[in-house]
Amino acid sequence: MKPPTAPETFSLFGEPLNKSPILLWLPTDPEKYREKLRELENNYSRAFFDYEKDKNNPEKLLWLGRRTGILGNFMEAAALYSKGVEKWPDDPRFYRFRGHRFVILRRFELAIRDFERAAELIKDRPDEPELYASGGKSEDKMGVASFNWNVYYHQGFTYYAAGMYEKAVEAYRDCMDAADNFESRVATSHWLYMPLIRLGRGDEAEKLLEPIEPDMKLTEVGDYYETLLMYKGYSTPEELLEKARNEGTVRFMTRGQAIGNLYMAKDEKEKAVEVYREILRNGSWTGGVYLCAEAELKRIGLTP
Fold it and tell me: Mind listing the pLDDT tens digit for each residue in 7-21?
């Protein structure tokens, strides 16, 4: 009989969370899912042997950590980045990626500390491209983003998930300044809008919607874009929820979490709780919006 495996981490309610790859990067079709998972596992194997042959190369360690994390081995990835922090303490990349792993592991304080250190290190430092660990450009992925943008983006997410809305707004303002394309600005607008309305700063939030118009062509931020259109009045929250439910669990989670946040901002707590519980019933714990739903319920003293 195979012994039980230890959980990867625990939810904010103390429930064990078992290892799972990051579903955001995997197709929903079963055959394509298995094919992509094999590709990611092969990428991990290559990264492991590349690092073993050149342990003094920070690039090799970074890619091993990223290939490890995308398969759902978050604790192992965090440990690899910790090696990088110890060996190259002024390299912001190790803090940025370790912070991302820490927040998904529900270690808010550690994640906040890492992102604040990463943000400190990138001041007055030239930006650089950050390649996706899931692969290059495709029909639904851009394949590359700004590194500095990613630091502020995930810092803002961590503050938001922790309920630190003022700090989240500051980070997302920095994120918007670092955005180097329209897709990044749409994604940032989606996340910045949420803490702004929780703080009652609706006028600032509405300004984010000015460039958003129907029928824009976007590669990978369609769910964020649809949510911004909903804020602008092109659909109701209930209509968008129903549409999202019909498009699969992963796509429901993103829009559902934003709508739950909107309900909370409008003091419609019962509606928000219903949406958050639906996310936790049907979603994957490795998703950031799943963590947000957990945190919201925890803060108001309710269970999933």
Answer: 999 999 999 999 999
Helices 288-299 and 249-265 sit at what angle, rounded to 10 degrees? 30
CB-side exposure of 207: number of CA atoms within 13 Å?
Answer: 6
What end-to-end distance do the CA atoms of the chain give, in Å?
Answer: 32
Q: Is 76 exposed, middle or buried (0-12, 13-18, 19+ CB in 10 A)?
A: middle
Residue with tokens 């304080």: 109
Whole-prediction pTM:
0.95
Task: Say how far apart CA 281 and CA 276 lie, in whole Å.
Answer: 9
pLDDT score, position 17? 97
- 245-282 pLDDT tens trace: 999 888 899 999 999 999 999 999 999 999 999 999 99
Q: Could you please report the per-residue DSSP string of 179-219?
A: --SHHHHHHHHHHHHHHHHHTT-HHHHHHTTTT--TT---S
* Residues 247/253/257/260 CA torsion (nearest 10 deg): 60
Burial 44-64 (b: 16+ CB within 10 A, else e): beebeebbeeeeeeeebbbbb
Q: Where are the domains of the chain?
A: 235-304
Higher pLDDT pick, 5 / 152: 152
